[in-house]
Amino acid sequence: MPFCPQCGIDNPAGARYCDQCGAMLIPVPPQPAAPVAPPAAPAPAIGPTVCPQCGQAAIPGEAFCDNCGAPLSAPSRPAAPVTTPPYSAPVAPQASYPPPIPAPAPAAPPATPPHQPPLPTPTTVAPPSYQAPVTPPVSVPATPAGPTPVSGRASLAPAAFVVMGTGAIVPLPATAQAVIGRGDPVSKYFPDIDLSAHGALDQGVGRRHARIFVQGGQILLEDLDSTNGTLVNGQKVAPRQARALADGDQITLGRMLLRFQA
Fold this sequence. Notes:
There is one protein chain. This protein is mainly β. The chain contains no helices and eleven strands. The strands form two sheets. Strands 2-1-11-10-7-8 form a six-stranded antiparallel sheet, with no helix packed on it. It has a five-stranded mixed sheet with strand order 4-3-5-6-9, with no helix packed on it. Strand 7 and strand 8 (about 235) form a beta hairpin.
């Protein structure tokens, strides 16, 4: 007979659910027949003979349906009919979110300030029409430092160079310009003022060392890109930059020292 694993009750041979607790039954192999006891009085039938759940015929006296396991003692409840109300009640409108912001109250007109007397108008004082006359600055000619440059002439003569150390005088030609240097017989070049006789080669004087000329009534000296340079009173004369000469100026060509005599 099927054995209920839930409550341990034996059920009829064809039952699939326990009549006591409704659990699914476990089939039990047949056991040897026991001595038959005298039949007991039949128990009164309890419950309906039809399952209210699935409509399957049930054995009288069983508490649960053998087909679906539904309890046979609970009568089926008919479904309550759904009635439609004759009319639908109006739905109250819901409040909107966020609630509307009330309009601001009109601002009160500004209070009229009490009357104030007008402020006095400041009196403008005109500046005096008289102004002291401005004295123009007096320009004072600058006094040149050192000897005055030689001016007012159109020729180099009668100026001359005095060789320092020997006192030899080298006169300048009666021309507007002359090249100062040393003669070179190999290249057959001889400058206008040749200092070869005064040791020009040993003292670093170039063949075309400098140029002396008259411009604007003044005697000027210009270095002709010499190798050892030209100085006037100890200051270097830049190449191709003319320098005005004055009486008594000391001229250095290389290492040869000369004095200009106007």
